[in-house]
Amino acid sequence: MKIPPLWLIVLLFIGYSIWATTCWHNHMVRDCCEDTAAAAVAETTGVPLFNCNENIPILDAKFSDWKKRILTPRSRQGDTLVITSFYRADENNGEQLARTRAEALRDNLAPEVPKDRIILNVRDTSAKCADLAGKSFESASFSWRAIKVKKEESAIIESDKDVILLFPFNSKERERDAKVEAYLKELCAKHKTTTATFNLVGHTDNVGTDEENVAMGLARAKTVAGSLTRNGIAANRINTSSKGESEPVADNSTDEGRQQNRRVVIPVNQ
Description:
This protein has about 270 residues and is an alpha/beta fold. It is built from six helices and eight strands; from the N terminus they run H-H-E-H-E-E-E-E-H-E-H-E-H-E. It folds into two domains: about 65-145, CATH 3.30.1330.60; about 155-270, CATH 3.30.1330.60. About 25% of the residues are buried.
């Protein structure tokens, strides 16, 4: 068997070495890039993050989506959002730092949730910044506290867009409630000299027939309209309608849920 010349063996060896090196490099680059891309996707979750000893939240491109998910439970109008901010054992002025972080998170959730419906708490944790290797971290938890109103009571709920009046069971009377009357009087005083119009929409729970609930919702809206006209708002600036039981905002299988649904919504159109 004839042995190939030395120069051919060397040439084949060099060619194989170049091929092997190129394959190894491409493999490493691909794995590196894929790992980097996966890490980037994993880090882009929308959750506000903080750096150690800093109080300005880091918001990524998915923050708006995260915010919507957090705010979804507030369909029970009047519920209170509780923000609990944490501080690490080795952070400077940890308690005050956590407080300012909570305030920053509250501001970033506005205007969907009014500040007076957000409670801020702080809590320490045994975790340390030294264990993070310079990485950003979540520094708060979020939960909702349901509004508590007795069945025989009414309630006034203000949001950034409208006012909601909750009604006791099977009731359409608002003028007997001094608290509501005082509120409506103040609302009218604010808008007597404006061109604002009031579109009052009555709602009910699911107790009774559709026809009865449409009638009840309209009666509630007209009762509130009567309070507005008595306090100086011209009738042609007020519209009343009823959705009956068709647009619940809470679970009609519970007393608390049904109470959330017995309401008149007052969006003020400037």
